[in-house]
């Protein structure tokens, strides 16, 4: 930067931090930081105030948003140029004509440096200079210090996080490939393992690691690396990793295992019993993210192996499925059984090697003779090993192990009663297994109960949550530990963060696009209820889903079967996503304009199918569908029914109609009158709405009802003078029907003792007071 300007270093590839001449600046509030990020990623270009409002708050900004932008920019000027006179024009951050511009050379912003390094690497790749490309890619990855724009709110920051995360992943994958191309296979394997940990559903990463040379990464010395394979270094002191980012350090197991004590003790008792000659087989099952693997880690990896016992550990994955017995042999290898048996296992491993990697000899069919033979031989060897030394074998994600391992595991289960052999397997709910035989005692991991979920949130939240915030988190997560941890680090009621959306996406990734689309439709049909914390969304009926998707019930049932098996759908006679945050993510990840269009379409289709009127209205309210002629005509036919069956929903839609003023006067009068009636029934203030109708209607009956409604609304609030004034005006006008005249006279008689002065002088007639012929009555 020229001498005219200070040296600025703005980092957004992690928690946002700014240095000015080697001094770190304090940015302040999250939204002020969001404004700076928008300006920095448009450095050298003017950004309008309206663009900043949309970037920070989205399509529904508060009334104070424009004023807040002015305040944020003013404060940022002082932060960036503290020596600048209050009245002097900004040099780093200027304004004019309702726009703002940040004057920074591109290289001051790490995002720009990262993107330029990626372009340089592409040029080097085209030139065939592999070593130069590797150095450039490493320099690009060293710029990262966590999730991009970590903790910065607003749709702009969220979109940038997603975009930059995808670029980071692609760069890290290229890093692994370049390391392998230059013969650095151990380092390449470490990078791939980090990528697998951060992206467990990326099967191609597993396959690439499996295809790497056998020694790669097996015995390599560990190096400090993030889960994208980059070494976390930098020229300036770094902030600790932000929860939920790619550089996370796993929280302490005591925090993660709140509410799991019975299962934890069951596993540890079983492990201790092996040394005493007691065997067994346990099968732990639960949906993705429920804490199965964490439970295994805490129960078995972090305890001392019982005396004379050995423990073997393996994880099923798509790579191991290519080799018959691959997962089981890996488990036995880690247990380090006696040398003679290990020699026979090595021989068995050689026999199990597929002749052609593209044509593995083991098949999923139970009747495959080669697979059965290998399984039987492995079972005999394992029984010998357990008889020699008590043995604990653990397989995580057994559903992804090769079919021969699964069948051998089922056979071993039948032998554990007479051997010091403990089998512990973990499977994901809904995933099919290659065998239908029993795999031992089934332990289901359910969602956490309210007490355990509350304890987990308090343990991992940066600050103790307020009761209302805690209730919202519990409602959204539905006892799911992974969702609880991520929600505890976010803002209550805010749209799902990019990290949380990525988690939900990963949990839905095993399903087909067809299933995901149907789940999205279920979320849209629950959208109105998602706005009401403290209650579970009632979901929808299959007939309603069929109506809005124009598909048959049987077809929809087939599409939803995998989600039901995986625990994504709650067990209920209605279709409901088990975890509110999944429904919210599916709904809120849809662009706002598209949400309105879908809710309008669904509402009209529900109405055409004869759905209950309050169900139709709830669907239209979910996205605030604008009032049009169709809605006005339909609502006029059903407003009385909705008012009787669902008054709160009726009030919500009628308030929307009244606010938009989009219909003709007759319809506006009809709907506003109903709104006033319902507000009064709900013991809410209805004077404004009733007065609006009374001032415009020409019908004596409706005018009288609305005058009385307004007066009675004031009376109930103890505003007796206001109630009397409305009654007096109405009685003087005499443009209301006789029944309502009498009602207003009765109301005046009730409020008269509460009026100031002396309204009950005995020499005055009651009619004189009521008719307003004496000053006291006025």
UniProtKB/TrEMBL annotation:
GO terms for biological process: phosphorelay signal transduction system; regulation of DNA-templated transcription. One of its GO terms (molecular function) is DNA binding. It holds the Pfam family Trans_reg_C. Coiled coil: none annotated. Residues 1-104 bind DNA. Residues 353-366 have a biased composition (Basic and acidic residues). This is DNA-binding transcriptional activator of the SARP family. It comes from Micromonospora matsumotoense.
């Amino acid at each position: 930067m020229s001498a005219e300007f200070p040296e600025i270093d703005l980092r957004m590839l992690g928690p946002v931090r700014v240095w000015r001449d080697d001094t770190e600046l304090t940015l302040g509030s999250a939204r002020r930081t969001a404004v700076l990020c928008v300006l920095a990623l448009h450095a050298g270009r003017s950004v309008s105030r309206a663009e900043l409002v949309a970037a920070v708050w989205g399509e529904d900004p508060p009334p104070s948003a424009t004023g807040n932008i002015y305040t944020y920019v003013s404060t940022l000027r002082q932060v960036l140029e503290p020596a600048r006179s209050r009245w002097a024009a900004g040099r780093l951050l200027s304004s004019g004509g309702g726009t703002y511009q940040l004057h920074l050379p591109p290289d001051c912003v790490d995002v720009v440096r990262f993107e330029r390094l990626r372009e340089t690497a592409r040029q080097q790749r085209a030139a065939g200079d592999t070593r130069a490309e590797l150095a450039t890619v490493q320099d690009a990855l060293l710029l990262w210090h966590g999730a991009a724009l970590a903790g910065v709110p607003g749709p702009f920051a969220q979109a940038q996080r997603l975009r930059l995360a995808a670029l980071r992943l692609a760069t890290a994958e290229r890093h692994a490939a370049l390391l392998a191309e230059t013969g650095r296979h151990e380092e390449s394997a470490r990078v791939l393992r980090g990528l697998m940990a951060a992206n467990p559903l990326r099967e191609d990463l597993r396959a690439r690691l499996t295809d790497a040379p056998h020694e790669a990464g097996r015995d390599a010395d560990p190096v400090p690396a993030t889960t994208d394979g980059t070494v976390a270094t930098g020229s300036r002191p770094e902030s600790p990793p932000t929860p939920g980012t790619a550089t996370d350090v796993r929280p302490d197991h005591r925090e993660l295992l709140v509410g799991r004590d019975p299962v934890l003790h069951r596993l540890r008792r079983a492990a201790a019993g092996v040394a005493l000659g007691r065997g067994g087989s346990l099968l732990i099952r639960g949906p993705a993210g429920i804490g199965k693997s964490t439970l295994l880690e805490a129960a078995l990896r972090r305890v001392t192996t019982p005396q004379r016992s050995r423990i073997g550990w393996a994880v099923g994955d798509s790579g191991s499925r290519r080799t018959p017995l691959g997962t089981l042999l890996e488990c036995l290898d880690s247990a380090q059984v006696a040398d003679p048996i290990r020699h026979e296992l090595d021989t068995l491993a050689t026999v199990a090697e597929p002749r052609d990697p593209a044509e593995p000899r083991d098949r999923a069919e139970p009747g495959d003779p080669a697979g059965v033979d290998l399984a039987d031989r492995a079972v005999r060897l394992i029984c010998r090993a357990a008889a020699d030394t008590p043995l604990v074998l653990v397989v995580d994600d057994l559903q992804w192990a090769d079919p021969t391992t699964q069948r051998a595991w089922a056979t071993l289960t039948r032998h554990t009663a007479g051997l010091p052999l403990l089998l512990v397997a973990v499977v994901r709910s809904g995933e099919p297994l290659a065998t239908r035989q029993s795999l031992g005692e089934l332990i289901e991991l359910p969602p956490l109960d309210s007490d355990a979920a509350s304890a987990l949130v308090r343990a991992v939240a940066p600050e103790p949550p307020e009761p209302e915030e805690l209730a919202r988190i519990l409602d959204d997560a539905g006892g799911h530990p992974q969702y609880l941890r991520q929600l505890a680090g976010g803002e209550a009621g805010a749209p799902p963060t990019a990290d949380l959306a990525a988690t939900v996406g990963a949990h839905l990734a095993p399903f087909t696009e067809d299933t995901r689309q149907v789940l999205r439709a279920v979320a849209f049909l629950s959208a109105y209820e998602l706005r009401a914390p403290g209650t579970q969304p009632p979901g929808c009926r299959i007939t309603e889903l069929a109506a809005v998707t124009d598909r048959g019930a049987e077809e929809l049932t087939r599409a939803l079967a995998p989600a039901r098996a995986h625990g994504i759908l709650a067990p209920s006679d209605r279709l409901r996503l088990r975890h509110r945050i999944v429904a919210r993510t599916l709904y809120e990840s849809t662009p706002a304009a598209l949400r309105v269009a879908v809710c309008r379409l669904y509402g009209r289709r529900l109405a055409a199918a004869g759905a209950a009127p309050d169900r139709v209205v709830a669907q239209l309210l979910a996205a605030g569908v604008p009032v049009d002629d169709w809605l006005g005509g339909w609502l006029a036919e059903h407003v009385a029914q909705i008012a009787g069956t669902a008054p709160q929903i009726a009030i919500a839609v009628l308030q929307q109609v009244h606010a938009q003023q989009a219909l003709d006067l007759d319809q506006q009068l009809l709907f506003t009158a109903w709104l006033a009636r319902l507000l009064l029934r709900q013991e809410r203030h209805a004077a404004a709405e009733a007065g609006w109708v009374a001032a415009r209607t020409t019908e004596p009956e409706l005018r009288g009802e609305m005058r009385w409604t307004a007066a009675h609304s004031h009376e109930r609030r103890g505003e007796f003078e206001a109630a009397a004034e409305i009654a007096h005006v109405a009685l003087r006008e005499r443009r209301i029907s006789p029944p309502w005249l009498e009602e207003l006279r009765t109301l005046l008689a009730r409020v008269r003792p509460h009026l100031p002065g002396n309204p009950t002088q005995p020499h005055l007639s009651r009619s004189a007071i009521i008719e307003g012929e004496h000053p006291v009555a006025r």
